[in-house]
Amino acid sequence: MIKNLLLSAFATGFVGLASAQTMPAEKIVLIVAPNAVNVSFAVRMTEGAGPLVCDFGEGVKTYDNVGKTKVESIKYTFATPSANERTIEIAADALTTFRVVSSRSINGVVSVNSSVLENLNIDYTSLTAHNKIDVTNCSGLVSLTLTSTGIEEIVLPQSSKFESVQASPTDLGQGTLKKVNLDGVPNLKEIGFVGASIDTLDLTKTPKLETLVCSLPQKPLRGIKGAKNLKFLKTLDVRANALGFDQIPDRYMVEEPIENFRYSSQTTYLVAKSKIKDYTVDLSHLNMAMGIATTKQQSEFIWKYKPNATAKYVVVPADKMTNDKGKFTFDKTLSEDDTLRVYCTMSNPGYPGIGKKNANTVGTYMIKLTDTATGISAAKAEQTGNISVMKTENGCQIYADEQVEARIYDAGGKQVWGGTVPANVDLGRGIFILRTEKGESLKFAR
What we know:
- By secondary structure, the protein is mostly beta strands.
- It folds into four domains: 1-93, no CATH class; 118-266, Leucine-rich repeat, LRR (right-handed beta-alpha superhelix); 273-369, Immunoglobulin-like (Sandwich), CATH 2.60.40; 376-445.
- 2% of the residues lie in helices and 39% in strands.
- It has one helix at 2-11; strands spanning 15-17, 27-32, 38-45, 52-55, 60-63, 72-77, 86-91, 95-101, 106-112, 119-123, 132-134, 143-146, 153-155, 164-167, 179-180, 190-194, 200-202, 211-215, 223-225, 235-237, 261-262, 276-277, 280-282, 288-289, 297-298, 300-306, 314-315, 321-324, 327-330, 340-347, 362-363, 367-369, 387-391, 395-400, 404-410, 415-421, 423-426, 431-436, 441-445.
- The strands form nine sheets. A ten-stranded mixed beta sheet has the order 6-3-8-10-12-14-16-18-20-21, with no helix packed on it. It has a six-stranded antiparallel beta sheet with strand order 1-5-4-7-2-9, with no helix packed on it. Strands 26, 27, 30, 31 and 32 form a five-stranded antiparallel beta sheet that branches.
- Strand 38 (431-436) and strand 39 form a beta hairpin.
- The longest helix is centred in the N-terminal third of the chain and has 10 residues, at 2-11.
């Protein structure tokens, strides 16, 4: 029995009780799941470091010879397992590497505070119960891996030393990264996000990036700010997102294998509302793109439309649309109900195989175009000084200081009457807009 105890102590670095030892301010605090029998992790210490101090909630313990020359494991068995969550503390004032791998006991990170920690690796360990990790107090951190953890939010330090971050859902597909700050790590070289749910990735302040992986998401990525400024990328994988030519980095490092540059299976592209006005859709930002080519290439756009809500899509006739370097204006006569429904498929030689099943095209969502100059959305609610409306039994009486042509639109923007006012107009119940040819407008209800 004594022999076994001695062997156990040797294997764990001569563990001992240290009643005189106190936990330093720089430490790692972890959450242990209910009913956990033991915990294990691995460490590497700084050169010349003293004993590693740990507090497992059952007295402070020290490990004299662990992690001095290589990464070594520590396993602690609780004397009394708890039916509730508990926390443990590991001194981090002399830790350069801390690892947790395939643990069912650890389910959260309360805090990480260390000026010397370089590598923090928590992998194949579910953190969905406590899905945020904050490493802002790790000024020397270089690498953070959270593979198969289901972490949802990462708060990185403001540090020029930080170079690599990775995260992905658990092996069961639980949890998805939703938020990460990348504005304070100017020397970041590697991003590895799989199965994330990030709408826009801001890389404007990480121009030295060499590896960008943000693929197979739970929610597709729709934008990468600063994508075209990533001129040192050696590896790209943004498969299965919803990115256009303007949001996918170009291949500047032409000496790298082209198979390391992956962007296929992009889903439906969302045209921003700011790019749509009246019967014009501005896609000039997609008009030219480089991709895997060596120079910018001309994009091709094929537009289709429906004249009404129930019609089938047909190609827009060439004489019913103008193209000014990717800025498309459609003839409003294409519409039969004051709303023109259009979408386009687009391709660019610099991005072959960009679509689903390696198709060379991606498509937009349906875009509804209306004339805001005459529709209800542009009208003012207040009465003008020259016209007024009085409700009648069957409609309304329109008064005007002088004769003028006018139109009335319903709440959907559809014209329901036109003529010269003053006039007596038959109308049903609802909200209406009266607009004169002089630009006067009045919203009224009946």
